[in-house]
């Protein structure tokens, strides 16, 4: 029997906009710009791992150079498309900034950018992980962005937009790539399994999606790694990764909540024999706590669980710096059990409307919070003054206030709707930092039951921001 399966991640890499799923907002804006001949000089794609940034950059590059576009997609048949797909189109230059951080690499790039394209319509530079460039390299890049030759386009991609200098960012058109929902990843994996004749059940796919932290490419790789005789089972994945049953995870949380030191010690001994992977174990604990926080109705326990979540998240950040990760886990769980979660002794008291907050910023929007929470705090409705709201934001982030002044708004019941007419401004309103500031300020102004939503209105088209911010 041959075990030389084809590489699924490569096979199922999208080659046109239709097969790039979930980034509807980005796709619509890009398509509109391209089909109306308004191709920008420089784009920056921002998003976490595996959200399709590099794939989209490649499709965009192929599109820009395609000689006969078809329904807004590259034709895959003209000489430029064929050359590009065979990695032979010299005019598309991909640079991984993580391994080419120096100023010399960028100088080379600038030198080559001065020459006309060989066969394509444009020279296109795709710079992946652009935040990794050195200061000197950024300065060199800035120089060419300030006066770009007309035959050059840039597509920058980054997971950490805050590390990209403002001077660079302001010269690019920004697109935020959203994290793909667990269900959507599982759906995509299911399609792959069907066409590859792989037997699998949904629970295994959901587990893979979670382990891959919603990065599609990583999920497909995990799928491949766990393929045994054309079948994939949840048990096999759990066994390979030394994962423990949910019952044990629940036991750990109960052990902390009850402050039962003896029970926790027994549990830790058992865990040490299981050779768990601490990173995955803590991730699973955090996911379980997250689910708990949506269903827990006892406010005292709810607050304790939030605190456990916070302590474990902090610990998670230390894992990669710790030589003995199990020791770190042991100490954290023992400390938590020995009285670390008394809500009255919390260093930071939760705001009065704490249960109304979306407990975890990364929580998928489709999860609804249970009715019990909305009942415990009566909805506060105050007169809402947008100008005062913007004034308060100015104290915290003047640049954001400037953007908001240029932004339209309307209030529908308890939803503040921000309406932009500029893609750039709209993009800036949606950065995690700015979203947090808007949410915090709104909460301060009108209480925790309000939502806000961002809309982009361009030439009569309204693009609704996919995420309705609920907190
Ligand atoms: Zn073509």
Overall number of strands:
12
Low-confidence stretches: 343-374, 376-382, 466-471
Radius of gyration: 25 Å
What is the total domain count? 4
Question: What's the CATH first level of the largest domain?
Answer: Alpha Beta
Average pLDDT rating: 81
CATH architecture of the largest domain: 3-Layer(aba) Sandwich
Q: What is the assigned CATH homologous superfamily of the largest domain? A: P-loop containing nucleotide triphosphate hydrolases
The helix fraction, in percent, is: 40-55%
Count of runs of 4 or more consecutive helical residues: 21
The global form is globular
Neighbour order of strands in the largest sheet: 2-3-4-1-5
List bound small molecules: zinc ion
Q: What would the CATH topology of the largest domain be?
A: Rossmann fold
Structure description:
The C terminus is likely disordered. Helix 15 runs antiparallel to helix 16. The strands form three sheets. A five-stranded parallel beta sheet has the order 2-3-4-1-5. Helix content is 49%, strand content 12%. The protein folds into four domains: 157 residues, Rossmann fold (3-Layer(aba) Sandwich); 59 residues, Helicase, Ruva Protein, domain 3; 100 residues, Zinc Finger, Delta Prime, domain 3 (Up-down Bundle), CATH 1.20.272; 85 residues, DnaA, N-terminal domain (GMP Synthetase, Chain A, domain 3). Helix 6 links the parallel strand 3 and strand 4. With 471 residues, the protein is an alpha/beta fold. It has 21 helices and twelve strands. Zinc ion binds next to helix 4.
């Amino acid at each position: 029997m041959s075990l030389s399966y084809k590489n699924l991640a490569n096979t199922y890499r999208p080659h046109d906009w239709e097969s790039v799923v979930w980034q509807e907002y980005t796709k619509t804006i890009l398509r509109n710009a391209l089909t109306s001949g308004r191709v920008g000089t420089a784009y920056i794609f921002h998003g976490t791992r595996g959200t399709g940034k590099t794939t989209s950059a490649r499709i965009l590059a192929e599109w820009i150079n395609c000689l006969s576009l078809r329904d807004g997609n590259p034709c895959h048949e003209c000489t430029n498309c064929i050359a590009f797909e065979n990695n032979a189109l010299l005019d598309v230059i991909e640079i991984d900034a993580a391994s080419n951080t120096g100023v010399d690499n960028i100088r080379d790039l600038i030198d080559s950018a001065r020459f006309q394209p060989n066969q394509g319509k444009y020279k296109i530079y795709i710079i992946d992980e652009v935040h990794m460039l050195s200061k000197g390299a950024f300065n060199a890049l800035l120089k060419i962005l300030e006066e770009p030759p007309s035959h050059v386009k840039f597509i920058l991609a980054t997971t950490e937009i805050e590390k990209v200098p403002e001077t660079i960012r302001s010269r690019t058109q920004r697109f935020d790539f959203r994290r793909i929902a667990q269900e959507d990843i599982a759906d995509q994996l299911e399609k792959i399994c069907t066409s590859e004749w792989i037997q699998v059940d949904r629970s295994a796919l959901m587990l893979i999606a979670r382990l891959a932290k919603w990065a599609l490419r990583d999920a497909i790789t995990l799928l491949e790694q766990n393929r045994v005789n054309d079948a994939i089972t949840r048990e096999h994945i759990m066994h390979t990764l030394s994962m423990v049953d949910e019952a044990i995870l629940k036991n750990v949380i109960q052990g902390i909540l009850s402050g039962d030191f003896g029970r926790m010690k027994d549990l830790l001994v058992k865990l040490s024999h299981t050779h768990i992977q601490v990173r995955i174990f803590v991730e699973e604990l955090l996911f379980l706590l997250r689910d708990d926080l949506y269903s827990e109705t006892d406010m005292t326990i709810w607050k304790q669980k939030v605190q456990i979540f916070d302590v474990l998240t902090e610990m998670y950040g230390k894992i990669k710096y710790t030589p003995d990760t199990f020791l770190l886990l042991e100490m954290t769980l023992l400390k938590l059990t020995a009285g670390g979660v008394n809500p009255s002794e919390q260093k930071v008291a939760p705001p009065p409307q704490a249960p109304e907050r979306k407990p975890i910023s990364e929580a998928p929007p489709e999860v609804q919070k249970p009715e019990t929470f909305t009942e415990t705090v009566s909805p506060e409705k105050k007169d809402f003054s947008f100008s005062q709201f913007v004034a308060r934001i100015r104290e915290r982030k003047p640049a954001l206030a400037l953007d908001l002044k240029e932004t339209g708004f309307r209030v529908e019941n308890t939803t503040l709707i921000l309406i932009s007419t500029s893609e750039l401004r709209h993009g800036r309103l949606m950065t995690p930092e700015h979203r947090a500031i808007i949410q915090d300020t709104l909460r301060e102004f009108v209480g925790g039951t309000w939502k806000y939503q961002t809309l982009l209105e361009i030439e009569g088209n309204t693009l609704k921001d996919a995420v309705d911010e609920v907190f």
